[in-house]
Design goal:
Blueprint (H helix, E strand, L loop, with lengths): L12 H14 L7 H8 L1 H9 L1 H15 L7 H7 L2 E5 L5 H17 L9 E5 L11
Helix pairs in contact: 2-3, 3-4
Length: about 140
């Protein structure tokens, strides 16, 4: 008598799912971004996508033009959240680039972005001269 019992409300299923997604994303050893997933699946191409001068120029262009001019409303979030990955191909012939893109597409089809978020991959082929000719 006189004591009150506190009742806890059951947690909503959405909240539990959100907590599980955050925990999974933060789990050690698990990739937390799309770029990290690709780094694990295609390390050489992904590394060039970070360090190659063409990739550095592409990132600057994306920030300055695409984000800066608000050409794509999702670009800034994709870049800042890690949902955008750049892959730099070393092939210098159109047919070789096409074959590598198909192989990379198959790789991407097996990949799963962290937290079931969307993801974007930009492939750059700086050595393929015919892709630079827009005439």
């Amino acid at each position: 008598p006189g004591a009150t019992r506190l009742l806890r409300r059951p947690r909503a299923p959405k909240a539990a799912a959100a907590r599980a997604a955050v925990a999974a994303a933060a789990a050690p050893g698990q990739p937390s971004s799309w770029a990290e997933v690709l780094q694990q699946m295609a390390p050489e191409e992904s590394e060039r996508g970070v360090r190659h001068p063409a990739a550095v120029a592409m990132r600057a262009w994306l920030r300055r033009i695409v984000v800066g001019e608000n050409l794509c409303p999702w670009a800034e979030e994709a870049i800042s959240s890690g949902a955008l990955a750049l892959v730099c191909l070393e092939e210098d012939d159109e047919e070789d680039v096409a074959a590598k893109l198909l192989a990379h597409g198959n790789l991407l089809a097996r990949a799963k972005p962290p937290g079931d978020r969307g993801a974007t991959t930009l492939c750059i082929a700086p050595r393929c001269k015919s892709l630079r000719d827009f005439s």
